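**User:**
Make up any protein.

**Assistant:**
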Amino acid sequence: MTEVLLIVGLLVAVFVGYNIGGATTGPAFGPAVGANVITKLMAAGLMSMFFFVGAITIGPNVVNTLGRELVHDTSIFTLRSNVAVLFFIGGALFIGNYAGVPASTSMTAVGAISALGLATGELDLAVLGEIVVWWVVAPIIGFWVAGVVGRYFYPRINEWVAIEGSRGGREMITVDRSSVVPRLRFGANATRREITGAFVVVGIGCLMAFSSGTSNIANAIAPIYGADVDMLALLGMEASSDEMLYGLDPDMLVLILIGSAAVAVGCFTIARRTLDTLGNDITNLPLTAAIVVAVISSTIVVGLSWIGIPASFVVIATMSIIGLGWGRATRTTTLSEAARGEETRVSVGALTAEAEGEPSPEIGEEEPEDIPRASDLFDPSTTARVILMQNVVPIISTVGAYLTFQFVPIFNF
């Protein structure tokens, strides 16, 4: 019976990883795919590769937080409870992916594990409080950093970036496999500046994939790791309890490999839906803005992962977009004018005020009427659906897990 539950638990963990791949590929490579810079297939390959690098390097810090520190007594991570926790994480994420919405995997996982801890009286409120505080502080940091960039640096960055995407409906960067050694090929008539810009967009996507791996691998494997499952014995291998493989606990290393493989499957399959949503449907966000938001958000997520905090990239990125648009719009007013109490009209749509490569007027020289409306930037119906699902998915995971552990007899402790 124990072996059966362990296998079921691993299968559910794989299911969670599969949905993480679907939920995180869109935010990372949606701009590049939407601008016809790379194909969905190439996006999936890059996402899989850099997710694994993030998972194997910084990811163990977050795995320890969720698997060993969020609850007082890790014995509550029984094989039976692990199946339930992972089921609610994966099931909730699947609902979001099916709707084409990349929900917060970190909030979903923390919610399910916290529900187990709360129902058993083993939840470490201090650790949970630290996580929640950072969930509040990190988006605020993203907002203000993006606001400063929007007001003082965005026009210069926008003037440098000129990415039109591919001409003729074909991707700008493709792989030529006609020879023995694959080579990169670029769109017809693409200028050196456009090619450089395309590499920048793809590079930023790789950074986002790396940051996703640092934070999200724990969402798939933390409950099983917390249960001290001997993965090497399961695979017919032997290692002493204190032996390290490549600087990692052997059991954690095996789980990271399994989780990353499952994420890769999700990247190549269900992620196509979220790539469509993030690349085409939700927003006309300029690539310059997408680059700035990705750098700010990914840097914050990697920093939080380094100290073991599971971070929500989706929420941080959303606040960064708002902050960037706010900072860009405030360029219509100088600091001296603001000090005199003159009103500044702000619109997130300010990010579409000029095209990539177009120089921007100096601060105070623009008229508020030149700033587009926010509705020119976001599609209202799609944005409302995304915001709704990003809140519903973690709630489903948390409430469902708590009710299960509190009232279903077979999960009573």
Observations:
- Confidence is low (pLDDT under 50) at residues 280-284, 337-353, 372-378.
